[in-house]
Amino acid sequence: MNNTMLAAIAESAQAPLALRQVARPIPGKGQVLVKVHAAGVNPLDTKIAAGAAAHARQALPAILGLDLAGTVVAVGEAVTGFAPGDEVFGMAGGIGGAQGAMAEYIAVDARLIAAKPQALTQREAAALPLAFITAWEGLVDRANVRAGQRVLVHGGAGGVGQVAVQLAKARGAEVFATGSADSLDFIRSLGATAIDYRAQSVDSYLEQYTAGEGFDIVYDTVGGQTLDASFQAVKTYTGHVLSCLGWGEHRLAPLSFKSATYSGVFTLLPLLTGKGREHHGAILREAAALADAGQLRIRVDQQRYALQDVNEAFRQVAQGQGKTVIELLS
């Protein structure tokens, strides 16, 4: 193994990413070196590249990419549970000054990764970590989703939304999800009742599906006005609204008058602060178990991208074109 690798680097804001030969990382204490087979491209990656994601604390130039799947090739000091040859996946870099996954190799904190699900390809596994962790931290950690509850997921065909639907179903809830007309069949294929948010008002689907009482849990994966609609859609007293995009300014009165609760989800915190990283690894082990049990799948964009196609992949994601993955096949 030589001491350099190919990487896609965001050299300055709004400039095309450049392919460069850079030094291959060496795993430090608590880290493993992973040969990257696939790197997920998330909307956050495109925002960092555009210079529009200060909360990610990733100064440019930088190698981007939060999500990865690959094979362990070396293990640093004080690492247990992983060995060379292990197939792994995780959300392990690309923010907070850390190298991202859009490179041939990455040194990652072993606490942030888990064994890849056998039921998923490397490409599928690389599309999963950020979405699944975000769904789990909301539905399980904050809201304790369970059987007997009615759950509404806003944006049920999106990256987080499609996983949230499946997670809520796997834990026994009755699931409903909003989407545009062209996404409704996919939402139904996940086992949820699909709601066309353009064709039906909140009051209308509340009456149709909850007799006007509201949903036990509402997960907003869209933000903006959709969070306000979530306050409207939640059940009085016991209802719980979640949002992974609750960054705007909103009137809390509609929620307060229902005596309902709200939780924000900021999935990046363990990567930025170093606290709670073990929990991310544990969540990914839950994802692998669900996938291997046939209860979790991820729809990936049919278009295939190599590292050399990184700028086209970024354009697709910036336009909202599904879960996109870059494959490093060498």
UniProtKB/TrEMBL annotation:
Listed PANTHER family: ALCOHOL DEHYDROGENASE RELATED, RETICULON-4-INTERACTING PROTEIN 1, MITOCHONDRIAL
Keyword match Oxidoreductase: yes
Name by which UniProt lists this protein: Zinc-dependent alcohol dehydrogenase family protein
Domain Enoyl reductase (ER): 12-326
Entry-linked InterPro entries: ADH-like_N, ER, GroES-like_sf, NAD(P)-bd_dom_sf, Quin_OxRdtase/zeta-crystal_CS, YIM1/Zinc_Alcohol_DH_Fams
UniProt key word Transcription: no
Xref: CDD domains: MDR6 (cd08272)
Leader sequence segment: none
Coiled coil (UniProt feature): none
Organism: Pseudomonas vanderleydeniana
A molecular function (GO) term: oxidoreductase activity
